[in-house]
Amino acid sequence: MTTYRTPITTVFCIPETKRFGFSYAFEGMPPHHVIKSCLTLQDALDHCDPHREHVWEQSTASNVQLISRGYKEGSVMWRMTRYTVAELAAHRAGA
Question: What are the helix (H) ranges across 1-95?
Answer without folding.
Answer: 41-48, 76-80, 85-93
